[in-house]
């Protein structure tokens, strides 16, 4: 009997080998060459997202991580929350990201819910901070304190110079300069703007109403409305810039002394500039640290009606007025807007990627939140979010429990560990005649002391003492130490959409030279198997701030 193989056998072997090569090159084998347990035809398709710049630093870090570890290609455009909601509604984005939901109450802008199926899922928490650039005697101030009333008057044009009596009352230790205040606001539709305007409408109604009348904005239900587009009166001295990078970048420039903006805390950390300590209802000036935000959000009211189109959205009324002395008043969280139906170009393969991405950042990703300038989501929002990603068509996420979900807020009793361990503010941060000399988070200046400067420092009240580094540590210092005039780390004032760099391609190409044909033969049988639940995610590469 002849042992000759059919003529097509050689061609089949070549075809199978080429298939293996193609699978390796396209990342189906994964970053380390391991084949995910999924059936032929189910692949992690590329995704396009759009929206918030407030949460963009966290998102971009997570996107880099999942590309490096799993070759999931996700492109996110930092277009602002309003554009993100619009892009999702119009079907030009697979997912949107926003600090506020569609159709928010008392809004000045029409923002109807989209016709396509969607759900909200919390993505990351944080504090909207007031980053500033202020000098006294050529040295940067890092210990500025501001009450909510003072902030409201600054951003409505009532207080216009840094030596105003209200700012002096907040800062008894500072000899404030008589220079103009330059409020820097967003020129694009922004979730941060919406959050600030919600706070202004509720907590500082008189100032906000007067400002609306000044800039010609309509009232909604007898008061100035909530807006994502900050109104600016011509000749007011306000500066408008697009994106979080835009406003933070403007303030960080050397010629922008006197400028102040509202921006997610992460951007102040990245640019090395201080943020104001904000007075809370307990009479303490606090910073938007991860722990203070975690404490504040214990007072948030979450829509827990699973039948509501606004399920998981937040009401921050009691956050603003929380009586806990550790609370940072302008704390909140951001949402990812998920598709729940196969429409507008959304496919099951895209659903596979999005659900797995959500499962990743609800657990592993939250572990990096504090380093990136955010606050990790607490257990109740993580568990609710895990239910939401199960609604994504085509998804097959690995849902982790409290033991294996690597989230620093989790504790055995279900309480928020981060909030439980949050330190109480120092007595010098209490409203009154004394003032802490320690610099605030975001200020990366290294304290220095020049000979003979002790009295000058004490007299100028430069916010001497320490600047907290990006890592969160605070060096010791006293009122005789003065801040060096540090060179700011400038942030590009132009908002960017950062494409995902194909960092995983080189390992895959190296594998080709190490026996791609052999791997192809080994891989073909599992490809024909039934799709199954994947194993737990490997520990990802830590993302770094952009």
From TrEMBL:
InterPro entries: PBP_domain, Phosphate-bind_PstS. Residues 460-476 have a biased composition (Gly residues). Residues 405-418 have a biased composition (Polar residues). SUPFAM superfamilies: Periplasmic binding protein-like II. Residues 448-459 have a biased composition (Low complexity). Coiled coil: none annotated. Belongs to the PstS family. Residues 38-362 form the PBP domain. This is Phosphate ABC transporter substrate-binding protein PstS. It comes from the Bacteria.
């Amino acid at each position: 009997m002849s042992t000759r193989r059919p003529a097509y056998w050689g061609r089949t072997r070549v075809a199978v080998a080429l298939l293996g090569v193609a699978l390796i090159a396209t990342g189906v084998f994964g970053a380390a060459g391991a084949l995910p347990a999924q059936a032929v035809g189910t692949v992690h398709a590329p995704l396009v997202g759009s929206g918030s710049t407030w949460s963009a630093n966290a998102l971009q870090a997570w996107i880099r991580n999942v590309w490096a570890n799993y070759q999931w290609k996700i492109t996110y455009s930092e277009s602002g929350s309003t554009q993100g909601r619009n892009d999702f509604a119009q079907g030009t984005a697979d997912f949107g990201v926003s600090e506020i939901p569609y159709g928010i109450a008392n809004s000045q802008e029409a923002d109807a819910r989209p016709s396509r199926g969607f759900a909200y899922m919390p993505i990351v928490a944080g504090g909207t901070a007031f980053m500033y650039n202020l000098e006294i005697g050529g040295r940067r101030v890092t210990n500025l304190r501001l009450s909510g009333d003072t902030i409201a008057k600054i951003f409505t044009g009532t207080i216009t110079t840094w030596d105003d009596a209200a700012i002096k009352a907040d800062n008894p230790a500072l000899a404030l300069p008589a220079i103009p205040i330059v409020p820097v606001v967003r020129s694009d539709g922004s979730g941060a703007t919406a959050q600030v305007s919600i706070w202004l409408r509720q907590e500082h109604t008189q100032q906000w109403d007067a400002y609306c009348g000044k800039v010609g904005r309509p009232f909604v239900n007898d008061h100035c409305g909530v807006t994502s587009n900050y109104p600016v009166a011509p000749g007011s001295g306000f500066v408008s810039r697009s994106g979080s990078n835009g406003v933070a970048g403007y303030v960080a420039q050397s010629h922008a002394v006197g400028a102040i903006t509202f921006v997610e805390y992460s951007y102040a950390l990245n640019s090395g500039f201080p943020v104001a300590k904000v007075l809370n209802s307990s009479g303490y000036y606090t910073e938007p640290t991860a722990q203070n935000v975690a404490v504040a959000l214990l007072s948030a009211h979450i829509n827990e009606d699973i039948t509501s189109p606004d399920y998981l959205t937040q009401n921050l009324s009691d956050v603003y007025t929380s009586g806990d002395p550790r609370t940072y008043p302008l704390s909140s969280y951001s949402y990812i807007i998920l598709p729940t139906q196969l429409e507008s170009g959304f496919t099951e393969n895209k659903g596979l990627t999005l659900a797995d991405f959500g499962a990743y950042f609800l657990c592993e990703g939250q572990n990096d939140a504090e380093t990136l300038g955010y606050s990790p989501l607490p257990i109740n929002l993580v568990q609710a979010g895990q239910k939401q990603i199960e609604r994504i068509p085509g998804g097959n996420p690995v849902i982790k429990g409290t033991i294996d979900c690597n989230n620093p807020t989790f504790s055995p009793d279900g309480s928020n560990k981060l909030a439980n361990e949050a330190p109480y503010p120092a007595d010098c941060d209490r409203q009154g005649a004394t003032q802490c000399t320690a610099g605030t988070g975001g200020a990366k200046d290294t304290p220095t002391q020049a000979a003979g400067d002790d009295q000058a420092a004490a007299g100028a009240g430069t916010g001497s003492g320490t600047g907290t580094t990006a890592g969160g540590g605070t060096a010791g210092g006293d009122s005789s130490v003065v801040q060096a005039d540090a060179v700011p780390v400038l942030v590009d004032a132009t908002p960017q959409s950062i494409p995902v760099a194909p960092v995983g391609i080189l390992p895959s190409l190296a594998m080709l030279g190490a026996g791609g044909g052999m791997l192809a033969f080994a891989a073909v049988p599992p490809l024909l198997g039934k799709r199954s639940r994947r194993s737990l995610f490997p520990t990802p590469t830590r993302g770094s701030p952009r």
